[in-house]
């Protein structure tokens, strides 16, 4: 009975809102059809009006319906966002914060309830010990990182560099890393010193070096100057000569060939030290710019070994401090214990797979079946519509290129939660079997990095096809991935996978029981956006298997393609690939759901206001414009928006001329 009264109250509130005039959010004649049956729904009944009406009431809190949607739709749909939420908070950041809180609740419960069933699984025990060691952190002691490094018999610069590479650091001198090459293969890559990154010798790093060397150091000022001179020399050796070609200089070599080309290093020894295996001379790897590598190795072999060692230690400490969410980089005011949230955020980056498993098992698993039923269904609709649009070939592409792009679209996959597909709990237990966790945070942090990068090296050299298939069914990304990449849905070009993180799989952006206008308003636009990234100006060259092709070289010869790009590229500050995905992804979603004029009339306003939720509060970053600019620009290109909101020609949201793309 209580639920009935709640539903009646919501209906009264929404009916009352209809009296606000044409600018209010209408709810009459909404399509209340449902993609879920009662058996598939996590709750009963499927797609309940109560859930949907409550969400609509939330949307109205964020709106300013007295404003003119045709002048500034962001202000209309998100105008009250800042009065409800703090500066810097967006729908995605709030969703991420809710997930952080669930992890904190899980670990605190496990700490205080030793009989919890999770304690029977070793993975939870290791996560809990890591969490406890992080919570116990006090004043930063960076020297502890250096003390944990294994002892090296000699003093050669490459030996220390190889040891640091085992923990994922490899940006200076000579870079050796294992990198994903395509949708089914990793490769060892050798590159020259990264001269774009330099050391900022802070007092904390200097003090760590001073204590680690028992005071045998020049002054901070002197050492800073020595490091600057070293970096200047390294840049001169690594930087291509002015006027040189921009062509890719990466080539495949056997280990024997690399040894012949660059005899200044014992490559078998260095690779063994960093990657833990003896590679045969016939083993293939990638190397970039051999002349620069030859110069660098020759110089480093002659340089002051002690200075090179100090510089490597300093760069390593800086790298660790700059990893996303290292709790040491933001110490508490009086060096009190690290906050629970800081530790969880750190663990979500550093222990990505184990943390995702815990979230799946404790929180998300019960809704997965319903979510995948809905999301995969919408995804297939969008793929079919996308392929249909490509086949129209409005740009006049040649048949070979068109077929390649169609293959890429058909090969797109989706992964909800970014976990390996079709594996058991035993798979995760085996994954963490050799991961060592104790009571010391510094040791635990390094061991977690060591565990991840050792696994990467093993994956690169394995010939087990079944194992490869599992590990390439998701993006097992490393601790360096920034929040603005993996906190929201994203297209992973090397695997042709759209990753849907847990943070997205909750209100206000998504709910499997949404009515169509709410479901397609965000989900279809989000999936459409990521699908269009597969053929945007950045990622179009990757084929369905993640191999690099020359598609962009062919496209720039097409005058229709260039005209479409130039229309969108209206200033030097445009994030062009994001604008392409915004415009074309929005078009794809509309073509999939809103083709019927009657559907637009009854559901259009709710659809567009729900679409706006993703952008409310979004700030600009290095990859994206502000949410307001992205939302208004994308919808201004859609005649359907102007139709739904009765925008007069020439208003900002109904411009005289528009851009279109795919």
From TrEMBL:
Q: How does it sit in the membrane?
A: Single-pass type II membrane protein
Q: Signal sequence: where?
A: 1-21
For the keyword Zinc-finger, the answer is: no
Specify the Peptidase M13 N-terminal domain's residue ranges. Answer: 70-417
The residues covered by the Peptidase M13 C-terminal domain are 497-660
Q: Which cofactor does it need?
A: Zn(2+)
UniProt keyword annotations, A-Z = Hydrolase, Metal-binding, Metalloprotease, Protease, Signal, Zinc
Task: List the SUPFAM superfamilies.
Answer: Metalloproteases ('zincins'), catalytic domain (SSF55486)
Q: Where does this protein chiefly localize?
A: membrane
Q: Which GO terms describe its cellular component?
A: plasma membrane
Annotated GO molecular function terms are: metal ion binding; metalloendopeptidase activity
Keyword Protease: yes or no? Answer: yes
Per the record, the GO terms for biological process are:
proteolysis
Domain of life, source organism: Eukaryota
Q: Which Pfam families match?
A: Peptidase_M13, Peptidase_M13_N
Tell me where in or outside the cell this protein is found: Cell membrane
Identify the InterPro entries for this entry. Answer: MetalloPept_cat_dom_sf, Peptidase_M13, Peptidase_M13_C, Peptidase_M13_dom_2, Peptidase_M13_N
Family recorded in the similarity comment? Belongs to the peptidase M13 family.
Name of the protein in question: Peptidase M13 C-terminal domain-containing protein
User: What is the originating organism of this protein?
Assistant: Drosophila navojoa
Q: Lineage in the entry? A: Eukaryota, Metazoa, Ecdysozoa, Arthropoda, Hexapoda
